[in-house]
Structures are given as structure tokens and as C-alpha cells.
Amino acid sequence: MDVYEVLFQKCLEYEVIVDGKEVPLWKLKKEDIANGNVDFDLQWDSLQDLAISLYELKKEQQKSKELIKYPLEEVIIGIAFLKSKKSGYLITDDMNNINTCLNYLSELITARINCISRYYYLIKKPMNTNLFDEIILKFPQKKDIKVKNIEDLKELVFKLKNFGKNLKI
């Protein structure tokens, strides 16, 4: 199982609210998603808000240790299920906003890998690492690691986006 499959599994365990109850994403029925009965409890209202948040996070915390605590699964859920706002923004097309978010997420993951390798690799393993971080800790230590993961991230997002449509009930 590669790192993106692990991240996909973690996204499926993400807790959403359906009819006032918290349930993991994998328990959703396609009717719940189609009827809009799901509250994803995200900190963003639209794909544009998410893109702005990712850009600002990367810009402000690129070298901060706090970057390793940022919930990647929540970002991926947001990319998969948030919609674009149709007014007040320059880009209102869902696909363009998804691609923008994926680009920023890729840069964020690259910064996160560099942060982990800079602060923790070969020094110590943090006590609060999650499975994704433990996999990243196995990366070779280099001064700056460049990651080409846009296609993997896009595949992961569209697996989640189509998840509700492909459920067998």
C-alpha cells in the first residue's frame, strides 16, 4: 500500500455529521450526499476559501514545525466535496478551483516533507506522528525535496468525489 492509499483510507475514516450523528465517511449512503444531508464540518465554505487558506498557510508556515500537524485528510475532503462560490470570485469553475487547491496542497506536502526531514529525520521521531508522517520519515534526507504528486492527489480526490456515486446499497 502506497502513501496515497493510506491517505485515502484515512479520509474514509473522516467523521462527518449525518442527521445529528457523527459517522465515518465510508458509512455514507449515496442518498445522503445527493440530498445534501451531510455536514462535513470543514473550516472553509467554498473551494476558493480553501485555496486561499492553503496559499496563506504555505506562505506563513513553510518553515514552521506546526506545518506537520495540519490535517491533510481534511483538506482532501474539502477539495472533493466543497463547491465553488459563483459570485465575488475571479475563478468560479469547480475544475479550475480543484486544480488550484491541488497545486497548493502539493506545495504544502512538499514543504511538510522538507520540514519533517529538516527538524526530525535522523534526530528523533516525534511522539505525535500520524501514519502519514511515519511514512514520510522514511524519505531520504536531502536539503530540499521536490515532490511530483499532483496526479496522485488528483486521483485520490476524484476517488472520494465519486465515492458517493459508486456506493452499492
TrEMBL record:
Domain of life: Archaea
Name of the featured protein: Uncharacterized protein
Organism name: Methanothermococcus okinawensis (strain DSM 14208 / JCM 11175 / IH1)
